From TrEMBL:
The keyword Transmembrane helix is annotated on this UniProt entry: yes
The protein's name: PAP2 superfamily protein
TM stretches of this protein: 7-29, 49-76, 83-103, 123-141, 153-173, 179-197
InterPro entries, sorted: PAP2/HPO (IPR000326), PAP2/HPO_sf (IPR036938)
Keywords, alphabetical: Membrane, Transmembrane, Transmembrane helix
All copies of domain Phosphatidic acid phosphatase type 2/haloperoxidase, residue ranges: 80-194
Gene3D superfamilies, A to Z: Phosphatidic acid phosphatase type 2/haloperoxidase
Organism expressing this protein natively: Methanobrevibacter olleyae
């Protein structure tokens, strides 16, 4: 078994363990503590900032981003890149919605600044943002570009999903465990998808 497979199995096991912990109600205290920490300095300005950040993980923004990637990749004659980005985000988001229905975890019983009617686990915003930023990060790291630019883009692509996850907790629509679950799920699926991509397609031809 190679290292990539071990990492995939580890993330998969972590996701299953997290679901079990949620089902036997062992995450409630920790979730509450993190919510209290995140909302400690709640005010109107911070709320508006987090509302703007959370929009970056919304279905509208993610869909527009995927469509833009398709258009740009078509214009630049790198069609496979747009297809890879859109496919990964779409597959992961649909699978996340399927799991939400199966697990059926209610939303947190706290102040919800933004009202959501679907189930809570895993966080769809987190899955979508980690999937989009994750596949973009993979493509950036594969490209031969200026190291400073690569570092800057990498930092942005790592920080953005984290901030979106925090915004979901602040707005009262997710627990930390929902966000962690979304992140773990998205990373697991991305690792599988990247493994398939690298097996089936000559990656260098895709990205150069």
């Amino acid at each position: 078994m190679n290292k990539k497979s071990i990492v995939i199995y580890t993330f998969t096991l972590s996701f299953i363990v997290l679901i079990i912990l949620i089902k036997i109600d062992l995450t409630t205290s920790f979730d509450s503590s993190i919510y209290n920490l995140v909302t400690m300095n709640m005010n109107d300005n911070l709320t508006n900032i987090y509302k703007s950040i959370t929009f970056l993980g919304s279905g509208v923004f993610i869909t527009i981003s995927c469509l833009l990637s398709l258009v740009l990749s078509f214009i630049l004659k790198k069609r496979n890149i747009g297809l890879i980005i859109t496919s990964c985000v779409t597959i992961n988001s649909l699978f996340s919605e399927f799991l939400k229905i199966i697990i059926a975890r209610p939303r947190p019983e706290i102040l919800q600044i933004t009202v959501e009617n679907s189930y809570s686990f895993p966080s769809s915003h987190t899955v979508a943002s980690v999937s989009l930023c994750g596949i973009l990060l993979y493509l950036v790291l594969k490209r031969e570009i200026n190291k400073k630019i690569k570092l800057f883009l990498s930092i942005i692509l790592v920080l953005l999903p984290i901030l979106i996850g925090i915004s979901r907790i602040y707005l009262g629509v997710h627990n930390l465990s929902d966000v962690l679950g979304g992140g773990i799920l998205a990373i697991t699926l991305l690792l599988i998808e990247i493994k398939i991509i690298e097996k089936k397609i000559y990656t260098n031809l895709l990205i150069k």
